[in-house]
Design a protein that fits this description.
The complex is a heterotrimer of chains A (286), B (383) and C (299). With 383 residues, chain B is α/β, with parallel strands linked by helices. Chain B is 47% helix and 21% strand. Chain B folds into 2 domains: 184 residues, Rossmann fold; 143 residues, 3-Layer(aba) Sandwich (Rossmann fold), CATH 3.40.50.2300. In chain B, strand 1, helix 2 and strand 2 form a beta-alpha-beta unit. The longest helix of chain B is centred in the N-terminal third of the chain and has 26 residues. Chain C is mostly helical and 299 residues long. The relative contact order of chain C is 0.18. Classes of the chains: A mainly alpha (286), B alpha/beta (383), C mainly alpha (299).
């Protein structure tokens, strides 16, 4: 039924988001929290193209991913010149600034959001179609990232993350590698955004704020940073558990903050007691 | 052997279990479940929770009066936190899990988010609290029983020009859904009537300091100021206005019609004009009954009384819709309920009076109130 | 619009309204200077400070003289606890910056969720009325709140400066800020310095939340937004330069206030982020005014 299918699509989309985020912070070691903004760029690009251009949906989603990738390259190239720490604040500023811009422009729908994104598949086939598409993309993302980090490039990434100084001393360019990883991760997030826009046919800037950053961060930390299936586990937990809780007849004024409390406490506990996350190997600390 | 037996028994038991409710249904008069998607938590919960309470009071009264041809009504409320994503969840649950053919929803962003679902699934989504004019164009299955901004804002603007005789208006509005559309409506109506808009400024929803904007306004020399914000910022704008020596009469809309604003502003609130889309205690004696119920239940006045009156009435509207279906022996689906809504068109509701559904819009008289000696008093009724 | 009275009004009100942000930014910048951490737990502490005062004033019906000390004690204790049981533990493990960031941000969120559970989400002010008496001074409206805000911020800055420059404890903080390991070699306890700074920042947080809470409504989520200004001010001022950060906070406030003369008010916030971006790209070490001495010497 539609209800479970929507949750399924959301889980798939968040698996894509958390895995790509894990690539950036877990494998790449880049401190950034702006992942939702690339999700937003992909969603808005695809949505706007869907409304105003006659291009096919697949095209729009890919263009959304490319737009996100381009934005991420610009951001990384400018802030990584300074230092890795700077990327954290720069990315936060970029996210909030771009959202502010979106809210103030008319053609993006402003603060009210972008409505009436045209549908693609209609009728009874819609739900299974989106489930399959998002599911396949999720599998492709997890697989692709796994292949990337397990290959020779992956070893280079690990080397850069763990011992940047030695890495540079060996003649490798850490900065461009970071930019490439960031671009790949953010581009994938952009694609997820495109799928999201087409499925829900409505996007609003409020969906991409700092709380969203914290949610994706939670998924990765709980699941296990720098692992293949950690983000998957995190995404499923963070989406399924609140839904399950809503079926218990708790008074709403207790339920919503309580969910928040449960998850933040879990993250903190994991951070201190099991930094490797649920799936993580017993690596020592982050 | 054992496994097969267990599996068979389990299978049979499940089938029996699944079919049991339908057996019961066939024998019993099942209650009508009314879906309501509201912010029960989050920043809008102050209103959302009271809306829910008022709706439940409506349900209790409908049931006490015999229900819908003997069937009881039951409110199923789901929390949206006024967030689109949660609104989508709620809509999906109403449709997919609760199998409802219609549901009520409010807060503009949420209405917009659930519109595609309602249209796809052919389920009737009725807005009963949001006022974004865009709601009238969201699709075949999205209707409103709450007047959209083009009702009260246009009447207010005309009143300010014609009756109050103001000619130079300043419009200050919050830069979001609520503010942008309404501000444009005010501006266009006031200008059409013959007035001039001397300042037209949006402020950031998170702003707390309005000096610059207010000084710009002061320099433009308006004779009235219309502020279209939310309950958090409107008092601050008015307070800072007064502190900068601006004494112009302020108009706002129903969000400013709340007792807290009087507390926060004290004498600075004198003369404030607000709109209400529901009749007051003096215009409709049923309203006192609602206030008494609130006093008895929670010992206070509900937040956003006019909105609560709509919430209460929605149960009675639902009753009218289902009674139509019973009369015509129609099953309850999105399409039939839509027909019930549009064919009947006129409904006499206890708390809000006569409601005329005009396609995707609804027209209602606008009640103006003003602050006099620290309390809201009726000012005018605009039809 | 270029009327000198209007400009003077915008200047005065701009300075006054930026006062709580100055206090917030100073607390944040000082913490960054001494501990090297972007401590987003300050958002949680801001929420604790406000709601403690709110609780004492509104639920317990006690006067301000009780609310302020209560907030100082509770916020100070919370800040110290975070330092001892959170940050120090992570330091001992050799955790990376990302871990600290996650910890402080998620902790702030936890605090805010708990406060939401306890207090709900209605905007609240510390006093029922947000109006404060206004005096006209040379055609400029000066409210009592304005005066209080400027006085508190100014004295806070002066006291901090005196503390950092002339007291031993303050000099220890400087030493630890420069190089914690080296300071330890000289017998200065870095741990103590970090704890002292956690308490000092709590004081600044309480002061700023008092001002903010008496000027307008606060919801549990407000601190998460307020802290962004502190972050930007700290960046503009330059990491490690606390008073420059204070100046940056005033500058940002005035920039937003005066910008209204040129642009629509709805673009004000975007301006803030634009400034952040330019800062990051062009002044990553903070804006530095050229040392006048050197210019003079070069003549």
């Amino acid at each position: 039924m539609e209800y479970l299918a929507t949750i399924g699509v959301l889980i798939a989309i968040y698996i894509i988001l958390s895995s790509s985020y894990d690539l950036v912070i877990g494998y790449g070691g880049l401190s950034t929290v702006a992942h939702p903004i690339f999700f937003a760029i992909g969603a808005y690009t695809a949505g706007l193209l869907a409304i105003h251009s006659g291009l096919p949906a697949v095209c729009n989603v890919i263009l959304g991913g490319l737009a996100a990738m381009l934005a991420s390259v610009l951001l990384a190239a400018s802030s990584l010149r300074v230092s890795g720490d700077y990327l954290l604040i720069a990315s936060l500023g970029f996210q909030l600034g771009l959202l502010q811009l979106i809210k103030n422009l008319d053609f993006t729908g402003g603060p009210g959001g972008l409505t009436a994104i045209p549908g693609t598949v209609t009728g009874a086939a819609r739900t299974p179609f989106f489930l399959i598409v998002s599911g396949l993309l999720a599998v492709a993302t997890v697989w692709g990232i796994r292949a990337l980090v397990n290959g020779p490039y992956g070893r280079a990434i690990t080397a850069m993350r763990d011992e940047e100084l030695a890495f540079t001393a060996l003649g490798r360019d850490a900065t461009s590698m970071k930019i490439v990883i960031f671009a790949i991760g953010c581009g994938i997030a952009g694609v997820a955004g495109g799928v999201y826009a087409y499925y829900f046919q409505y996007i609003s800037p409020d969906q991409f704020e700092v709380l969203q950053s914290a949610a994706i961060l939670t998924m990765v930390v709980l699941g296990g940073m720098g692992t293949t299936f950690g983000p998957v586990v995190g995404a499923v937990l963070l989406l399924a558990i609140p839904q399950a809780i809503t079926f218990l007849s708790l008074p709403p004024s207790i339920m919503a903050p309580t969910q928040g409390i449960i998850f933040t406490v879990l993250v903190l506990l994991f951070l201190f007691l099991r930094p490797a996350g649920i799936v993580g190997l017993s690596r020592k600390t982050l | 052997m054992l496994y097969t037996t267990r599996r068979t028994i389990l299978g049979a038991a499940t089938m029996a279990g699944l079919s049991l409710p339908s057996i019961i249904r066939a024998q019993d008069k099942e209650s009508i479940k009314i879906g309501s998607a509201l912010p029960l938590t989050g920043s809008q919960a102050g209103y959302g929770k009271d809306f829910d309470t008022s709706m439940r009071m409506g349900a209790a009264d409908v049931n006490a009066a015999g229900g819908v041809n003997g069937r009881k009504v039951e409110i199923v409320a789901l929390d949206t936190q006024a967030e689109p994503q949660l609104g989508i969840n709620a809509a999906n649950r109403f449709i997919g899990v609760e199998k409802m053919p219609m549901f009520y929803v409010s807060w503009s962003a949420v209405v917009k988010a659930v519109a595609p679902i309602a249209n796809r699934e052919k389920v009737l989504a009725i807005n009963n609290g949001a006022n974004s004019p865009e709601i009238a164009t969201l699709g075949d299955y999205v209707y409103t029983t709450f007047p959209l901004a083009d009702v009260d804002i246009t009447k207010l603007a005309r009143y300010v020009y014609t009756t109050l005789g103001k000619r130079r208006a300043a419009v200050l509005y919050i830069n979001n859904d609520t503010g942008i559309d309404a501000a444009k409506l005010y501006r266009d109506t006031f200008t059409q009537a013959g007035g001039t808009i001397v300042t037209f400024e949006a402020y950031d929803p998170k702003a707390t300091e309005f000096t610059g904007m207010l000084l710009k306004t002061r320099a433009a020399n308006p004779d009235t100021v219309h502020i279209h914000g939310l309950t958090a910022d409107t008092p601050q704008v008015i307070a800072q206005m007064r502190q900068l020596g601006m004494q112009q009469r302020v108009t706002s809309y129903s969000a400013a019609y709340n007792p807290k604003i009087l507390e926060q502003l004290g004498p600075a609130a004198e003369g404030l004009i607000v709109t209400s889309l529901a009749p007051g205690v003096n215009d409709n004696k049923n309203v006192q009954k609602l206030l008494d119920e609130w006093k008895a239940a929670q010992n206070r006045v509900p937040n956003g009384l006019p909105y609560d009156q709509y919430q209460y009435d929605m149960v009675w509207l639902t009753k009218a819709l289902y009674e139509y279906l019973d009369k015509k022996s129609l099953p309850a689906t999105g399409d039939t309920l839509k027909e019930a809504l549009l064919t009947q068109k006129e409904f006499d509701l206890p708390m809000t009076g006569k409601m005329i559904i005009d396609g995707h819009r609804v027209n209602k008289p606008v009640y103006l109130l003003t602050v006099e000696k620290g309390a809201f008093v009726p000012l005018a009724t605009l039809t | 619009m270029l009327d000198p009275v209007i400009l003077a009004q915008i200047l005065w009100t701009g300075i006054a309204t930026s006062a709580p942000y100055v206090l917030m930014t100073v607390g944040f910048a000082l913490t960054l200077k001494v501990t090297g951490l972007w401590n987003f737990a300050h958002a949680g502490l801001m929420a604790i400070a406000f709601y403690t005062m709110y609780f004492v004033l509104d639920f317990c019906d006690l006067p301000v003289v009780a609310a302020l000390p209560a907030a100082l004690i509770v916020t100070g204790a919370a800040s110290l606890a975070i330092e001892i049981f959170g940050l120090q533990v992570l330091r001992d493990r050799g955790s990376g910056n990302l871990t600290f960031f996650i910890f402080t941000l998620i902790l702030s969120e936890l605090i805010i969720y708990v406060i939401t559970l306890l207090f709900g989400t209605e905007p609240e002010t510390l006093f029922k009325s947000i109006l404060s008496p206004v005096t006209i001074v040379a055609n400029i409206a000066v409210s009592d709140w304005d005066e209080l805000a400027v006085a508190v911020a100014a004295s806070g800055l002066v006291l901090l400066y005196a503390f950092l420059t002339w007291s031993r404890e303050g000099q220890f903080l400087n030493a630890v800020a420069d190089n914690a390991r080296l300071a330890e070699l000289y017998g200065i306890s870095a741990k103590r310095a970090w704890r002292v700074v956690s308490i000092i920042s709590a004081v600044f947080i309480v002061a700023s939340m008092y001002l903010i809470g008496t000027h307008g409504g606060v919801v549990p989520n407000s601190p998460l937004e307020l802290i962004i200004t502190a972050v930007i001010g700290t960046l503009l001022g330059g990491i490690g330069r606390v008073f420059a950060a204070a100046g940056a906070a005033v500058f940002l406030g005035l920039l937003q206030s005066f910008s209204i003369l040129v642009i629509d008010s709805r673009w004000q916030n975007l301006l803030l982020y634009g400034v952040l971006f330019i800062t990051i790209l062009m002044f990553p070490r903070g804006v530095r005014l050229p040392p006048v001495r050197l210019l003079w010497a070069a003549r």
